[in-house]
Amino acid sequence: MEELQREPCPWRIIEDCGAAFGMGCIGGGVFSFWKGYRNSPVGSRFSGSISALKVRAPVLGGNFAVWGGLYSTFDCALIGIRDKEDPWNSIGSGAITGAVLAARQGVKASIGAAIAGGIILAIIEGVGIAINRAVSEQYKPVMPQIPDPSHLPPQQHAHHKSGFQ
Fold first, then answer.
1. pTM assigned to the model
2. Are 28 and 56 spatial neighbours (Cβ–Cβ below 8 Å)?
């Protein structure tokens, strides 16, 4: 099974930022459409939904892009500092990203966001490792089992006559 290869670090940041923007726009669009539908008067629910979607979806996409860009930047920095790519980089990146994004609310909020970001990324990494282990079990080579000859019935040898001796 071939392992998925990611882009090298400078390009990874841009790729993750764009992917996060797309996810934020789509998820935010669905959420904003539903919220606009519920908050609009009965006669104009569809137009209210579209209006809410156009206003809020790009904002949520931008928020996701900022999170994705910071996370990827810190992930690449930790890969460069530690000179290895492992789950600890992701956990640390989630913690640092949470701390940086909450820094304007003060030290206490920043520490809380760092803990939350680290825990969330630890759960994500742990689930990923568990799934990889469960799936990889089916690809392990298995030693073929040769039957014990004492349990086999005796073979009858057929004598073939041919013109060659």
1. 0.74
2. yes
With contact defined as beta carbons under 8 Å apart, do 23 and 64 qualify?
Answer: yes
Cα–Cα distance between 139 and 1 in angstroms, integer?
A: 8
Cβ of 164: how many Cβ atoms within 10 Å? 3
Q: State the Cα torsion 93-5-79-134 to the nearest 10°.
A: 60
pLDDT tens for 44-59 read 999 999 999 999 999 9
Q: Which long-range contacts (CB under 8 A, 24 or more apart) does 75-79 make?
A: 75/12, 76/9, 76/10, 76/12, 76/13, 79/9
pLDDT in tens, 25-38: 999 999 999 999 99
Cα-Cα end-to-end distance for the chain = 52
